[in-house]
Write a structure and sequence with these properties.
With 369 residues, the chain is mainly alpha-helical. The chain contains 16 helices and six strands. The protein has a three-stranded antiparallel beta sheet, covered by helices on one side. The protein has a three-stranded antiparallel beta sheet with strand order 4-5-6. The longest helix is centred in the C-terminal third of the chain and has 21 residues. The radius of gyration is 28 Å and the shape is elongated.
Length: 369
């Protein structure tokens, strides 16, 4: 049964629905007609067994819900640092003033406005899509009794183009030459770990955080990266701890990877602790400077390719490694090298170039004979 009462103090109508099998449901309205309409809708949904209690969505603000999801995201691993940064952005975003609103009041229009404002600020659709993905993940993880209000606007965003950047032989030569030559005014301060780390990354397809770890943040504890005690030189296998997908993984070591480890041992004779005694910050700075010097040297030598090393990033070393090993190993073995748990993910990292396809042509010729 339903009951509608008028409260003189607040000048509002309270509608209360009581039905066997459901907890009492109530809501306040300015107009009695709205209260009567709501009662009919709720009773009808209960009769059809389609009623969903969205009380949590009425009493929980977006900021509170994000805090709940933040606790969950923090428990995963360091790979979710960017996700946690996006959570903070939503909580402090002033233009839309969404953080303090109850979830039940959030509509598709609110997130369409967010999309439009971010686009005007010069933010790409790919970045906006990742921002909205946080909201969608929050609604997916917690049952607030309502549909995700971002679904419609996400469909209007262009998907980011998948990376397929490969390193040419010429680019690799110029880049590695400049990584080897740090051009530091004080030889004692020169970072000799940079070229070793870069070559090891290509040899193993390891993520930068797996090699170097990360400093302690407000969201996650410090992680030391690859440790000497996690390398088995008898089996030529190393173990990366707490990887991006939340688990430890073993990685095979090729002769080039072992050579890099031998060079690292010469720089630091320690038998325990971090293998690569450098930092993410040092890697980023040295990488950018080496790329710039390599491009300048290439032009000085008469190079005419305007795209020479322009968009090659550190993470592309992982693509480069996967693409090279794909010529030698099947998908399951390749997943053991890269650490992907889904074959579809590792396939996105394999980007065949002309030489790779030419190898197939050569095999075809041999088969035909």
């Amino acid at each position: 049964m339903a009951n509608i009462r008028y409260y003189e103090g607040s000048k509002k109508w309270q509608a209360v629905v009581r039905k066997k099998g459901y907890p009492p449901k109530s809501k306040m309205f300015k107009l009695k007609s709205d209260a009567e309409k709501w009662v009919r809708e709720v009773e009808g949904a209960m009769d059809r067994n389609t009623f969903v209690d969205n009380k949590d969505a009425e009493t929980t603000t977006l900021s509170q819900a994000l805090d709940l999801y933040s606790d969950y995201a923090k428990s995963k691993n360091d790979g979710f640092e960017m996700e946690l940064n996006r959570i903070e952005r939503w909580k402090t975003w002033e233009k839309g003033k969404l953080a303090n609103r109850p979830l039940i009041t959030l509509k598709s229009k609110d997130f369409e406005d967010y999309r439009d404002i971010r686009r005007l600020d010069g933010i790409s659709d790919a970045t906006i899509r990742l921002d909205l993905a946080v909201i969608a993940a929050m609604f997916k993880h917690f049952d607030f009794g309502m549909d995700t209000p971002t679904s419609r606007v996400t469909k209007t965003l262009q998907k980011a183009k998948e990376r397929n950047r490969r390193l040419t032989d010429e680019e690799e030569k110029y880049l590695m030459d400049q990584l080897d030559d740090t051009q530091c005014s004080d030889p004692k301060r020169a970072n000799k770990w940079i070229p070793i780390t870069a070559r090891f990354a290509i040899a193993t397809s390891a993520r930068r955080c797996e090699l170097l770890g990360h400093d302690k943040t407000k969201h996650s504890p410090a992680y030391p990266g690859l440790l000497w005690e996690n390398i088995d030189f008898e089996l030529n296998v190393c173990e990366f701890k707490d990887t991006k997908n939340g688990s430890d993984r073993f990685c095979p070591l090729s002769p080039i990877a072992l050579e890099c480890l031998e060079q690292a041992r010469k720089l630091s004779p320690a038998k325990t602790g971090s293998v690569f005694l450098t930092t993410n910050s040092a890697i980023k700075q040295a990488w950018a400077r080496a790329k710039k010097r390599a491009q300048e040297k290439y032009k000085t030598d008469g190079g005419e390719d305007e795209n020479f090393l322009v968009d090659f990033r550190w993470h592309d070393n992982r693509h480069e490694s996967a693409s090279r090993w794909a010529n030698e190993f099947g998908i399951l073995e390749l997943m053991n090298i890269t650490g992907h748990k889904d074959h579809r993910s590792v396939i996105r990292y394999v980007n065949p170039n002309k030489s790779d396809v030419a190898r197939i042509s050569s095999k075809m010729s041999k088969i035909a004979k």
